[in-house]
Amino acid sequence: MSASIAARITAEFPPHDHEAVRAALATYGEAEHEREAERVHGAILDLADNNADRVLLLVKNAKDDYRDVLFWASS
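^ thats the sequence. predicted structure below, dont judge the formating
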């Protein structure tokens, strides 16, 4: 995870959610088909609206098709 994504987590989420958000984001990008991890992580944070549960849902969506998350973030 990049320093900029880690900084966003610290700035945008309450301290008790930091580890859960980091762990959830870390699961995206493990598989070969999970591309553009940095960009997808940023899009997930954009869409999550400071909600850790939403991060989990968006990571699941990204694992199915990361292009959906990128599209939603650009809309």
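Helices lie at 3-12, 18-27, 37-48, 52-64, 66-74.
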